[in-house]
Design goal:
The chain is an alpha+beta fold and 178 residues long. The protein has a single domain (3-131), classed as 3-Layer(aba) Sandwich (Aminopeptidase), CATH 3.40.630.30. The chain has helices at 17-24, 28-31, 43-51, 79-85, 109-124, 139-147; strands at 3-5, 8-12, 58-64, 67-76, 92-99, 129-132, 151-162, 165-175. A hairpin with a 2-residue loop joins strand 1 (3-5) and strand 2. Helix 1 crosses helix 3 (43-51) and helix 5 crosses helix 6. The two termini are 28 Å apart. Its EC number is 2.3.1.-. Residues 8-177 form the N-acetyltransferase domain. Pfam families: Acetyltransf_8.
Length: 178
């Protein structure tokens, strides 16, 4: 387990989590903003992307009250991305997440998850900044991130290829208080 906050647990992925990821990432309402409805996942794609990839992304399952409800990942920004975003010699992390169980939408769990991850990254990883890049049209996620203390920094034009079209994204930042 990476951390727990109230009834929320974030832990490393295990083998059984493949089936949750396959379910969530084949659901058009999840794919609308995460990966794209034109790229649903099957078990082989889940295995390839979440289990067989050799990257520096920490991939985690989110549980609430003992039930798997979503996914979160975090990573330290590489030098190329830091330069692109305008950061120099800082410890900057990025994160991506979704609540996969729609019955848990609009209950404040996204806010609890993001704020808990911020706390973890700042305290345990000494992150000075945490960034996200949601699509401009993803107003629900942006509202959640703003509740957690993220600020819109600038538009990243045509930043993400999504459903065959390049989408503008917000560079959003949480800056550690000194």
């Amino acid at each position: 387990m990476l951390f727990q906050n109230e009834n929320l647990i974030v832990r490393s992925l295990n083998e059984a989590d493949k089936f949750f990821l396959e379910k969530w990432l084949s659901d058009p309402s999840i794919l609308e903003f995460y990966e794209g409805r034109d790229h649903p996942f099957d078990i082989d794609k889940v295995t390839d992307v979440f289990y067989d990839s050799e990257d520096d992304v920490v991939k985690c399952m989110v549980e609430y009250e003992g039930t798997e409800i979503g996914y979160i990942q975090f990573y330290q920004l590489d030098d190329v991305t830091k330069k692109e975003y305008g950061y120099l010699n800082e410890n900057v992390y990025g994160t991506d997440q979704f609540i996969g169980e729609k019955a848990n939408w609009n209950k404040g769990l996204g806010t609890l998850l993001v704020s808990s991850m911020l706390n973890y990254l700042v305290k345990r990883k000494q992150a000075e900044r945490v960034v996200m890049d949601p699509q401009v049209r993803n107003s629900r996620a942006i509202k959640c991130y703003e509740k957690c203390g993220f600020k819109k920094i600038r538009i990243l034009p045509k930043h993400e290829l999504h459903e065959g079209k390049y989408q503008d994204c917000w560079l959003m930042e949480y800056k550690k208080l000194k």
